[in-house]
Task: structure prediction
Amino acid sequence: MEITTFDFEEHGDERGILIALEENRNIPFTIRRCYFMYNTQPGISRGFHAHKTLKQVLICVRGSCKISLDNGTEKATVVLDRPNRGLYLSSDIWRVMHDFSDDAVLMVLADQLYDESDYIRDYGAFLSWVAERGKREGVPEEDPEKGIGG
Ligand code: T46
Result:
């Protein structure tokens, strides 16, 4: 599956390193929300949902964690273990965050305010949602009388 990550530019000097995140520059949307999670308890996995429309960038600004992604047909796991790495997450992806280190701080930038109605929290509903994506996006169905490409 296609995975988009960003390696943010580090502005380093003898004092240390600074990273700047800017909407529609190195973050590919207008940032409307930022949240972060920390003090994640050992063995805990979070997420287990997809979104209908939300776009996000995940950055583990301290420590490390893993993000498992599932687009309905393919699965992949991405390790986030550097504060200069961002993982772009489009909406139609079932996500699970796991293997948090004790010191992990996972920060998320989002293009929308919090809206529970945007969540798909049932895996079966997620599979139906991705299967029907073509219909929702107006991809014309084939005319059986004309045949493919007719
Ligand atoms: C996502 C992954 C990566 C709010 O009140 N405002 C918020 O902006 C968020 C994100 C959550 N909440 C409340 C809702 C729940 O009562 O915080 C509680 C924990 O949220 P949730 O169980 O959805 O957290 P995660 O870690 O399972 O998922 C979060 C995001 O919700 C989700 O959009 O993609 O991180």
